[in-house]
Design goal:
This protein has 434 residues and is mainly beta. The protein is 6% helix and 45% strand. It is flat, with a radius of gyration of 48 Å.
């Protein structure tokens, strides 16, 4: 046994001595990041701005920087430190990968000159591309006072390029690619005067103060308290005194002279909504909201409004919320009064008559009388005239109707049945008695 063990150990030692061992070392991947704000970087025909890639140690990489419009390439950084003396043509940088690194292409905005022409002389300021224009570069100026010959001029808060007229103002982003010369923009001021009827008078009175406006300025009309003047009503429109054209809402001043604006009045018509005891004053081709209408009782609903037009009644659909005084309606008015009437309709529904096991008029259990309007007078007598005696049992006579199969008499043929918005079906049960 001992001899066998010694032989095995000897063979194992011989095997170990005769074995060759190999050790393999692998190249670890290294992280390289690229950053380029206001430009791009080309790497092996790929264009990137921010990218992180893995490379092999000692691998050679070439970065080519290209600035965006309005910017210049400045220098390269490695891990935040400027790279000196390694920038080639086309702003390229060739590196041999040694360790994890971040390379940044630094671009700077181009600088241009803004020359401001003014009465006090030209002022030249520098500005960077894609930066905000400041008050220091384009200062706010005072308005210019006129004299006996010239008008006052208002500084419009901006400057215009002297060749093409493009406007610049404070807070604008400068995106020009060349030096520019600008001058302040002034516009002549004009007087805008409003007149209105301020009292029970046919004389227009001037409102104060006058409004100062320039070309292209929007203005609002004043509120006139005089809605009715005699037999005329304010139309809601305004016009320039001496002209017929109606000014649009929120108008823009486009004149080259002082102007006076007056309200437009026209023949007033009394619009009577007789059904609601409401009336308003209105002029031709103007509209007014239709008042809310409540039907006379819960069995009726508002079907439409009617008004006389051209000698005939015309309908205004209930979906319409406004009434327009058209020429045709106005021409049909009597003493400039237009009456608008509400037309009611009855709610409709179904009546089901149940004979409680007996037969009448070919019906055995029940008979459906469809679409009976509103309050129905004597509907049972007119629809079921034979309900005085029971043909199936002569000892029984008709006593009336109930709303329950074996209930007490609630309705007689002379009773009124009514349908409402919520009640569209009425079921009646015949009650027979000895």
């Amino acid at each position: 046994m001992r001899l066998f063990r010694n032989i095995v150990l000897s063979l194992l030692i011989i095997a170990l001595i005769g074995t060759t061992y190999y050790f393999v070392f692998y190249n670890k991947d290294i992280s390289v990041a690229i950053s380029a704000e206001n430009g791009i970087v080309t790497i092996e025909d790929r264009q990137v701005q921010n990218e992180t890639q893995l490379y092999k140690k000692n691998q050679t990489i070439t970065f080519i920087a290209k600035p965006n419009t309005g910017y210049d390439f400045n220098f390269w950084q490695k891990n935040g430190v400027k790279v000196d003396g390694q920038t080639g043509e086309n702003h390229s940088l060739t590196v041999i990968v040694k360790d994890n690194s971040t390379y940044t292409a630094i671009f700077t905005a181009k600088t241009f000159k803004i020359t401001v022409e003014n009465e006090g002389g030209n002022v030249v300021k520098n500005i960077s591309y894609n930066s905000k224009i400041t008050e220091e570069i384009l200062p706010t100026l005072e308005n210019k006072l006129g004299d006996a010959v010239t008008r006052d001029k208002r500084f419009m808060g901006c400057y215009a390029e002297v060749t093409l007229g493009k406007k610049f103002k404070v807070e604008d982003i400068f995106t020009e690619l060349n030096d520019i010369t600008v001058k302040p923009v002034y516009l002549e001021e004009y007087s805008l005067t409003f007149k209105t009827y301020k009292t029970e008078s046919s004389l227009l009175e001037e409102l104060s103060p006058k409004l100062k406006v320039v070309e292209g300025q929007e203005y609002n009309f004043p509120i006139t308290s005089q809605k009715i003047n005699g037999n005329k009503a304010f139309t809601g429109d305004w016009q320039i005194e001496g002209e017929l054209a109606i000014l649009k809402t929120n108008p823009t001043f486009t004149g080259t002279r002082d102007i006076t604006i007056i309200p437009v009045y026209a023949q007033a018509y009394i619009i009577k909504f007789a059904s609601v005891s409401d009336e308003v004053m209105l002029t031709k081709n103007k509209t007014v909201n239709i008042p809310k209408y409540t039907p006379s009782d819960d069995t009726k609903y508002l079907s439409k409004w009617t008004v006389l037009s051209g000698g005939e009644l015309i309908d205004i659909l209930t979906s319409t919320t406004t009434f327009e005084l058209t020429d045709a309606i106005a021409n049909s008015a009597t003493n400039f009064v237009v009456t608008v009437n509400a037309v009611e309709n009855d709610y409709q529904g179904d009546i089901i008559v149940n004979y409680n096991g007996h037969s009448f008029g070919g019906a055995t259990e029940s008979k459906l009388i469809k679409k009976v309007s509103g309050i129905v007078s004597s509907v049972l007598g007119s629809r079921c005239p034979a309900l005085n005696a029971n043909p199936d049992n002569s000892t029984l006579t008709f006593a009336g109707f109930s709303d329950l199969p074996e209930g007490e008499v609630k309705y007689l043929p002379t009773n009124l049945l009514k349908f409402t918005k919520d009640i569209k079906t009425i079921t009646l049960y015949a009650i027979w008695k000895l």
